[in-house]
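User: My collaborator and I are trying to settle a disagreement about how two of our proteins should look. Neither of us wants to argue from intuition anymore, so we agreed to look at predicted structures for both before our next call. Could you fold the first one, then the second, and keep them clearly separated?

Assistant: That sounds like a sensible way to settle it. I'll keep them separate. The first protein:
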Amino acid sequence: MKKRVTAQKFGPGFVRDLDDSGYPLPEGIIVEKDVPIEMRDGIRLAANVYRPNKPGKFPVIMSFTVYAKDLSGWGKGYRIPSHRISEATAFEAVDPGFWVPYDYVVILVDSRGFGRSPGGAWGAYDYYDAIEWAGTQEWSNGNVGLCGVSFLGIIQWDAASLRPPHLKAIIPWEADSGQPTRKFGGIPETGFLKKLEKFFLAPSYPAWDRSFPEKRPPGERVLEPPGERVLEDITVPALICATWSDQELHTRGTLWAYKTISSEHKWLYTHGRHKWAEFYSAEALDIQKKFFDCFLKRADSRIMYTPRVRLEVRERLDKYAVRYEDDWPIPRTKYKKLYLDAETGTLNFNEIIRERKVTYDSAEGKAVFDIAFDQDAELTGHMKLKLWVSPEETDDMDLFITLKKLDAEGNEVCFDSWHVPSKYPVALGWLRLSWRKLDGEKSTPWQPILKFEAEEKVEAGEIVPCQIEIYPSSTLFRTDERLRLVVSGKYELESTRFMFEEHSVNKGEHSIHTGGKYDSYLLIPVVEPRI
């Protein structure tokens, strides 16, 4: 039987169906609802505080949310067994039922203008002020850590870059960092934010006075555009989680942050399975606890002897291997070119001599290229696709890239994802041709970064080169299994969450040119076993 959250509790019109909301909170936890935290401009944000019911000073784990701090329960669609989280676990936040018995204080704050907090414009300085408040309470040991998934991770980058004195560690879990290029290679996506605003963002139903300043505090950096956040300013220890199966949202930006932040102590936890279930899994909680025990309690140094990268290499939907590496990208990676052959529809380690082209209808067609591996091959890291292309009937084109794995019999091997469960491919890439100019300073041979200075249209039928970033992944191919490259004019996944068709520039046929001077190729990251 489903529970229903009452409209009176979360504001007019805010009703959501929920399945069982988890186990009851253990005894010995003090629960304080709607605790006011005053910001520098005088506004008070509403927080829930969960702390041990005993004397002492304890480290703090904090999250800000836009999904209503009091809305507990997840539902079966999130693949989290009800016995794994307590009824106090808010969407994408840490579970007080797990952490408080280990002598942590958990604080969940409704962001300004959401849930029980009044206000309008908000930003990272709210997080800064809340961290400093938490670090100076009588029950606090002065050490504050941040933890949460998605939005609850994204804002951690902003807060940490401001360096609040009481902030000692962060765990951004699958959290886009505002990578230095426009999402989806310049192709607009119009579906996700609409669904987010309609079904998830909590309306403001303040616990006290609704009045608030119309302007942000002086000098505040805002969250948008995300490229303004300064990742290099982050120096606190960080445990960062990235998944291979969330490429539309967080994969690229999370890995970019791992490479970019200045923290001396940082770890990367990768996986390729279901998003939220992994956050609350026994393995994830174990490394989270080791991390916070070290940097918030100073009580356990085992994390310091853990290699920096937990690498999960997928083989099938239900089969993967885990090992540890010292850095990302993996230093011993060998980048190899697979040349496209339009005549045979194949990918080849040898250059193609004869010039050929393959043409497809941009509305429904696609171009497909395959290679069967003659020995086991692990592809882990960044990929790049160089194409020579021509839009035959217009001055621009949208390119959607899908990499797939096929078994030895030719059947597609799919992986997991939160929005297309059990049907996710190896990796994805996007490009609108008019935004193909690269940033020479930021690009690497395996990761092209777009410049986004000005559009560069082409003439109908004009053949031009472009480089397309394929988002990072990790997949093992056995002997005789195939890698398939699909190039098309539309998003190939059957997802109800993401929409790219609304502002498409496609019209008529597209051509891909290969061979001779048209050296179209896929650059793959082959990781060889340690000797």
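The second protein, kept apart from the first:
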Amino acid sequence: MVFLIGILIISLASAADPLYCCERLKNNPSAWCQDATRAECATGVNPLSKTGDQYKSISALCQSTSYCKSGTCVNPLEGSCMPNTPQVVCNNNGGVWKDKNMGELDECKLGCCLLGNQVAFVTLTACKMLSANQGLLTDYRPDIQTELECIASITSDKIGACVHEVDYQRTCEMISQTDCKKIDKAEFHDGYLCSAQQLTTNCGPSKETMCKDEKVYFIDTCGNIANIYDSGKITDTNYWTYIQDPTCDDGKGNKNSKTCGACDYFSGSMCKSYTQTKPTYGNYICSSLDCTYNGKPYLHGETWCATNTKPSLDNSPGSRYFRMMCYNGEVTVEPCSEFRNEVCVQDQVNNFKVAGCVVNKWQDCTNQSSKEDCLDIYARDCKWITGFSIMKAKDKDGKIIDLGKDEHNISGSCVPSNSSGFDFWSGEGNGPEICSMGSAQCVVKYDVSIIFGSRRRLQTDLNYRMAHCVQNCYCIEGYKLGDGSNKYENHRPATDPTSYEAWKNLMNNICTSLGDCGNKKNYLGYFGENKTIFTSEFIKKP
């Protein structure tokens, strides 16, 4: 009895075909620097090349080539330094590729970037970008090696109350000491607010607020900035006299607080006009920059992974990965490369979600014949399924042999962890060849030497078939361990199937893991027109 599984059988390239480093794949144009067979490599002129170069491909692994060798990608427009980036990928994204580790490049080392009266502890490349965005000359201090030293290096002039006369009235401005000296007969009072009673000016406390440096501040009756808004200090004379730090800060950005204006952008809040929650005084509040997506809360700056389907249908035909980002209270969507040539990877650092799209390295999974090579996460993204090998060959006598033996001599198959998608509707590409690797045969042997005419009974009587089964009995539909003459059954590993259903599920698991193959629902939850077919035929042999 022969069992067949699969949708199409096409001759496959030998597992021994040499691998080439493809600058770009022919049927997956978003996949760069992949180890694959020469037939899978793109040919012709590279449209992204400024000099009209041809796509490159040589018989070597990408990690040993010059054009796909990993290095550091410096992108001055984005202000970023990306380690372990292939040269061709860096150049195509507008970056400058360096054949050095990130720590060896001066432009990628951390230092102090001076931005007016603010600072940032970033790389020189990022400092140039930030300075250009603010219309400032780049002022970078590589000798400052810690963030605390960087913050302490701010040397902006002192701000205080500058008292002077205007139209015979004693008034006040909150300005720097340098600017105050430019006003005739002005008095500068370091550490004082213009609303201080001791200064006897026409400025006094008020209930109004304003936004400055992303925080909410009280303002006096002259419109000068006072201390950070704290509703509990509205009648506190000292709070309206001296420049002070707030005592209402909750350390979490005071999101949507009615009483405190100590906003913190990095904690997910900034000063905005109120929309829903009205503050106790004034019209401004520490508005939350967090987001809600599909009923779940996300912090400002968090990124996470999503797909266009249910979790149970991940890696199904039509499914795709996305990188989601919460920024300034809005959720943005960044799609990963189509056909699941990229997958989204998510992690968590101190309960803060971070995610990114990474290349799905599935192309050479089926070429691996050992579990150790299959699970090498630095070379490929594969998984090992024990119980059946898709790698077959014929010896010199024409006998089929199994190439998929692991260290325990158990048959296994190396398949993609995240199966790629195929442009199967166009009839092009290598999808049919890959899917056909999931086809299988299971030959069941019987003992028919005792009772005359038993072949006929084997065709019609299930119980009789199970009772006289000699080998591979689990391939009989309805068979379960313990049925039939199991004294004839070969000793199989415990991980092997023990029933027809288990064997069939194993075959389908391998087939659907190869790609958009087999008995599989699409991303909407519907089956296609062609399903994996399990058929049986009784073949009479002596």
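Some points you might bring to the call about the second protein. The chain has five domains: 1-9+364-542, 20-65, 69-105, 159-289, 293-359. The first strand starts at residue 2 and ends at 4.
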